[in-house]
Design goal:
The complex is a heterodimer. Chain A is α/β, with parallel strands linked by helices. Chain A has one domain (about 1-180): Rossmann fold (3-Layer(aba) Sandwich), CATH 3.40.50. Chain A is built from 7 helices and 12 strands. Chain B is α/β, with parallel strands linked by helices. Chain B folds into 3 domains: about 1-35 and about 315-395, no CATH class; about 45-130 and about 195-295, Rossmann fold (3-Layer(aba) Sandwich), CATH 3.40.50; about 455-715, Up-down Bundle (Glutathione S-transferase Yfyf (Class Pi), Chain A, domain 2). Helices cover about 50% and strands about 15% of the residues of chain B. The radius of gyration of chain B is 28 Å and the shape is elongated. Residues about 420-445 of chain B have low confidence and may be disordered. The chains are: A alpha/beta, B alpha/beta. Bound molecules: iron/sulfur cluster.
């Protein structure tokens, strides 16, 4: 546990350093309430949800719908074009960089992570690994490299005008990661 | 590009204050940020790995391509090998026709830029949209990128706002965050409507068929996710053997390019994945990879340039290039590639003629080699390019004449002696003149040039008393033109210091110009002539060591081996010379160094590193120790002490407009230290810096060669 805490703290520091928002909960049941608060405060109303083990055990669809959000789980191309938020699960975190790694050959999963203004990512705490090489190692040991793997480090950015850093270009403008211990 | 056009481009770029300001600010920030990004990482070890992996691919290129094709195909990709740009463009055009493509979105791909793919597609009436913010901006402007990583660095937010206003027909305010939002909303529509995506890749893994993309804005993933047809254009130099090898490039490319630990997105695509097809149905994407040669195999075939394959296109070399920092990318004339590496790439992949002109912009300072991920020797390759260009086209008459004179000892020395008399009216009693005679004339803007000394060192030498009891050995002094005819006092300092460590010094009369001017101007014939003259003249066989107080000469003399590789007898002598030859500070240190003494009178000294001495010879501590060990001297380090002073041999003659601003930055760094004396180890730097200081009449700072300063502070009174 000690080690997991250390890795989490390191990850969080790096992730926030690149303008990400990072939260940790003990049980996945807590994710729903946390999200209702965060998204409520941001004034977001519509959500594209790509169901995953964490989102299901957290009963996100039910909870968010009950709280008044409009939650889409299908026809995601149309919906991600207009929804405020996309929710997907990611596979790993990299502590040394504050990077999330997602395996996503499925087009809907990618759309929920990239086309929306706010991306909410879900991750298991013990999936935070120390270094990038740990992730490359894991990918390399799979029977084959998945069709798409994305390393994402914070919201999209550009310094193309006058070398001034701007957050939120074509990809998400905000990235929120919720890490769950269980 | 004609020379006059190049000059015009340079003038335009220098007048663009936005560009200059942005590039200069970035050049300061970059160095610090890059260093921070590498904290905890062993850059040398990482780049050794990159070099190893990339050169392995280079020497197994056919195997790499076959493997990649096999593995990507097994995963549903359609791989096409294009020998040249036309084949690549035709393939993509045909595909677009078959698929009835109307709208294409693109994310940054230098390879497609290189083959003018956009133009080819547009000629067919297809709409092609660059989606990268900077590329989008310059596409509206109708210009080429001014920087490999920041293509629109030459524009202000006001200019971007105007461009966006005309593009969207809606008023855009010059507020960067709002401009970015405009781009976002324009582009979302384009992404959603596009029926084809085109991208480039940073890495292609042979063993798995995987493509890596490094991006920040998120446009690359949208380009690769939304359209139902996708085409990658990938140069064969992007191939690496193993998946895990990508690690080394992942750790270096972003740190070097933008000083980021990692780019916001690193995306791995392996084969065809799922996409939305017609009517909201999901299915398999039509996924194509065009593997592009287009001149790259010629690079591989050319032994001198092969190492270019190790380039990962990070842009690090450009970020530290003093010339690039002043003029930006447009001046380089290439469509896609800029800076030193860009010049080389342009030569092979685009236009030899353009490259032949812009290679002149290289100062040969070697700063890029310190940061290069692929360990490329860019300056040496540029020199080779210069040589080949010189051989093919010949040099302009005045240059050729000058070099012919320099490599003819008698004639040259006579002319210098004549000059020392003829220049009198110009020197105004000072040791500087504003017009040098002969071939050096016409280069004095922002800088005064030194007068030719009344008595050359060769005439002074016999009068020097060498008081060495039981000499430990003999050292031959190689003076070089500047020391011999302009700064003879440096020679006196060299002799005094070597005497102090117990060696006698001889002056071989038949020495001549080292040949560096010819080498740097691409005149190999005259360089070889100088080499032979000096090997015969110096007779290294007869002494224990040879000393030179000019690092450019030292380097040139050491390189005689290269020039004479096909002349076995001379080669042997060249090797003997190279083995015995050292630069002043290095030799004095090897021979035991100087004991602590000096006049004790306080003197604040700062030190400027010569590019050749520091980077070619790795000598930077020795001279600092010699100076610090002289009582009275307080050594104060300046900022950017190893940044080029802008002299660079003939450079200041050909491009005073670039050389002078580079010098000005050096002068600012010097003034900031509050030093009274700048010590240097190179007469060329001495000439450049003192010329600059002389123009600022208010400046009381003196420039001295280490040998001369040691002589001043240590001589017995
Ligand atoms: S030459 Fe070296 S520093 Fe320049 S872009 Fe290539 S790898 Fe980077």
């Amino acid at each position: 546990m000690e080690r997991i805490n250390q890795l989490y703290d390191k990850f969080k520091g790096k992730f926030e350093g690149v303008n990400g928002e990072c939260f940790r909960v003990a049980k996945s049941e807590e994710i729903g309430d946390l999200l209702i608060n965060i998204l409520g405060a941001k004034g977001s109303k519509t959500i594209s949800l790509y169901e995953s083990p964490i989102s299901q055990s957290a009963r996100l669809r039910e909870k968010l719908t009950e709280a008044g959000f409009i939650v889409h789980t299908d026809d995601l191309f149309t919906n991600t074009c207009t929804d405020h938020v996309g929710i997907t699960e990611v596979n790993w975190g990299i502590a040394e960089l504050g990077t999330m790694v997602q395996i996503a050959p499925e087009v809907d999963k990618r759309l929920c992570s990239t086309l929306v203004p706010i991306h909410v990512a879900l991750l298991k705490t013990d999936s935070i690994l120390p270094e990038m090489d740990d992730v490359l190692e894991k990918l390399d040991s799979l029977p084959q490299i998945p069709g798409f793997v994305g390393f994402v480090t914070g919201p999209s950015r550009s310094s193309d005008i006058e070398r001034i850093l701007e957050i939120g270009v074509h990809g998400p403008e905000q990235v929120i990661l919720i890490v769950t211990d269980q | 590009m004609a020379n006059s056009e190049l000059k015009k481009e340079i003038a335009g770029a220098l007048q663009n204050n936005v560009l200059r300001g942005a590039l200069e600010r970035f050049s300061h920030l970059y160095v610090i940020a890059r260093e921070k990004a590498y904290q905890g990482y062993d850059f040398e070890a990482l780049r050794n790995k990159v070099q190893e992996i990339k050169s392995y691919s280079a020497s197994h290129i056919d195997e790499m391509i076959d493997l990649f094709e096999k593995n990507a195909t097994a995963r549903g990709a359609k791989v096409f090998r294009a020998a040249n740009g036309k084949e690549a463009n035709d393939y993509i055009k045909k595909l677009a026709q078959e698929k009835n493509v109307k709208k294409i979105v693109k994310s940054k791909s230098m390879a497609s830029e290189e083959i003018h793919l956009n133009e080819a597609l547009r000629a067919d009436g297809v709409e092609v949209q660059e989606t990268d913010l900077g590329e989008f901006i310059i596409a509206i402007e109708g210009k080429h990128p001014s920087h490999m990583v920041f293509p629109a660095i030459h524009l202000t937010k006001e200019q971007v706002a105007d461009l966006f206003t005309s593009y969207t027909n809606k008023k855009n305010d010059p507020i960067i965050s709002k401009l970015v939002k405009t781009a976002r909303s324009v582009m979302r529509k384009k992404f959603i409507e596009a029926d084809m995506g085109i991208s480039g890749a940073n890495i292609a893994v042979a063993e798995t068929g995987t493509l890596f993309m490094f991006t920040n804005e998120g446009n690359a993933d949208l380009t690769a996710t939304i359209p139902k047809t996708h085409v990658y254009v990938v140069g064969i130099e992007k191939l690496i053997p193993k998946f895990k090898d990508a690690s080394y490039i992942l750790k270096t490319l972003p740190r070097n390019g933008t000083a980021q630990n990692i780019t916001t997105y690193v995306s791995l695509y392996t084969g065809a994945t799922e996409a939305y097809l017609e009517n909201g149905m999901k299915g398999t994407k039509d996924f194509h990879i065009v593997i592009l040669d287009n001149g790259r195999r010629n690079i591989l075939k050319d032994e001198k340039f092969r190492q270019m394959f190790n380039c990962v296109r990070c842009g690090g070399c450009i970020n530290v290039c003093p010339a690039f920092q002043l003029v930006g990318g447009h001046v380089y004339g290439g469509k896609a590639y800029t800076g030193g590496i860009g010049t080389l790439l342009t030569a092979f992949l685009d236009s030899e003629e353009t490259a032949g002109k812009v290679q002149n912009l290289c100062l040969q300072c070697g700063k890029c080699t310190e940061v290069c991920v692929g360990k490329l020797q860019i300056p040496e390759m540029i020199l080779e390019l210069r040589n080949r260009h010189g051989q093919k086209t010949g040099l302009p008459f005045t240059q050729k004449f000058a070099l012919d004179v320099v490599s003819n000892r008698r004639l040259f020395h006579t002319m210098l002696r004549v000059a020392s008399v003829a220049q009198k009216p110009f020197t105004r009693g000072k040791q500087v003149i504003r017009h040098l005679p002969m071939f050096l004339s016409g280069l004095t803007e922002g800088r005064s040039l030194p007068a030719v000394a009344e008595k050359p060192f060769r005439d002074i030498f016999p009068t020097i008393e060498q008081d060495v009891k039981n000499p430990k050995g003999t050292v031959a002094i190689y003076a070089g033109c500047l020391l011999d005819f302009v700064y003879p006092r440096i020679g006196e300092g060299v002799v005094a210091a070597l005497n102090e460590v117990g060696y006698k010094v001889v002056f071989p009369e038949n020495q001549s110009c080292c040949g560096a001017p010819a080498t740097y101007m691409g005149d190999r014939e005259n360089a070889v002539k100088s080499a032979i003259l000096n090997i015969q003249g110096l007779e290294a066989e007869k002494v224990d060591y040879v000393v030179s107080a000019c690092p450019t000469c030292t380097h040139a003399l050491k390189e005689y081996k290269e020039l004479l590789h096909d002349n076995p007898e001379m080669l042997k002598r060249a090797e003997e010379l190279a083995n015995k030859l050292y630069d002043f500070s290095k030799l004095v240190t090897i021979l035991g160094g100087l004991e602590n003494k000096g006049d004790g009178i306080p003197l604040k000294v700062t030190y400027h590193d010569s590019c050749h001495l520091r980077r070619k010879m790795g000598v930077y501590q020795e001279q600092r120790d010699l100076l610090s060990n002289t009582s009275g001297i307080e050594l104060i380090e300046m900022n950017e002490s190893d940044r080029c002073c802008g002299f660079a041999g003939s450079y200041s003659i050909k491009f005073p407009e670039i050389s002078v601003p580079i010098l000005e930055r050096k002068l600012r760094n010097i003034a900031d230290t509050g030093a009274e004396v700048v010590a240097v180890d190179c007469p060329g730097c001495l000439m450049q810096i003192s010329g600059g200081l002389d123009q600022k009449d208010s400046s009381k700072i003196k420039v001295k060669h280490t040998a001369e300063l040691l002589l001043d502070k240590r001589k017995k009174k």
